[in-house]
Amino acid sequence: MTRSHDAIVTTQFGPRAADYVQSAVHATGEDLDALDAIVRRQAPAHALDLGSGGGHVAYRLAAHAAQVTASDLSGEMMVAVATTSLEKGLANIATCVAPAESLPFEDASFDFLGCRFSAHHWRDFHAGLREARRVLARGSTAVFVDAVSPGRASLDTHLQAVELLRDTSHVRDYSASEWASALTEAGFTVHATRTWRLRMDFATWIARMRTPEVNSSAIRALQDTASDVVRTHFDIEPDGSFMLDTLMMEAVAA
């Protein structure tokens, strides 16, 4: 049996839509507050939440934009976002099911774009960024937030390994330099960057993705046998909880 990457993503995330709507890690954070401040200043007419997941960016955008479109590969995620939007009284959010690499929108349809914890799942990172630039009007702001690789080979290998074991739809946590290069290549000008360290509680992190026990055990084995350099960087705790590097890049469609 063959399965496309998009099919793997939807299989992984569709049944977990409610979990991501309710996830404290996704629903709160300094990065969301920073994004909120940016979109408040911009007050866009039509904003796009690209790779919306549980819709937490869309809910923030809705407070300051006249209209918001939440777009995601998972139809079940979009049903959850539409339901939650109604519960929150956010009548200006519409949903769309589409992969990041092939968005069903006209050129320059939006004047703001937010994308948070999505790009590391994309089948084609560069194509997704090109689509993000295509659907944004020139001069519009885009804010990308994601987990990032620390860059150093040993740290990168460990991070990608535990991410893939936990979630088989994982593609790559890109480094800050890879992000900057890809955004420039896609037609963006990077204006500002911010970084955070996010503590991942191991039990919650595993439960949210319903990671099989065999994979969970493999992650713990990798952590237990990791070098001092790896253990120190990720601040791996006795129960497997660890610190994840995250990056926000504010860019403008050139």
List the helices and strands and how they pair.
Layout: H1 5-13, H2 17-22, H3 24-27, H4 30-42, E1 46-50, H5 56-62, E2 67-72, H6 75-87, E3 93-97, E4 110-116, H7 125-135, E5 136-147, H8 153-166, H9 176-186, E6 188-200, H10 202-209, H11 213-224, H12 228-233, E7 242-253
Parallel strand pairs: 1-2, 1-4, 2-3, 4-5
Antiparallel strand pairs: 5-7, 6-7
Helix pairs in contact: 4-5, 7-9, 8-11
Looking across the biggest beta sheet, what order are the strands in?
3-2-1-4-5-7-6
CATH architect. name: 3-Layer(aba) Sandwich
CATH topology: Rossmann fold
| Annotated CATH homologous superfamily | Vaccinia Virus protein VP39
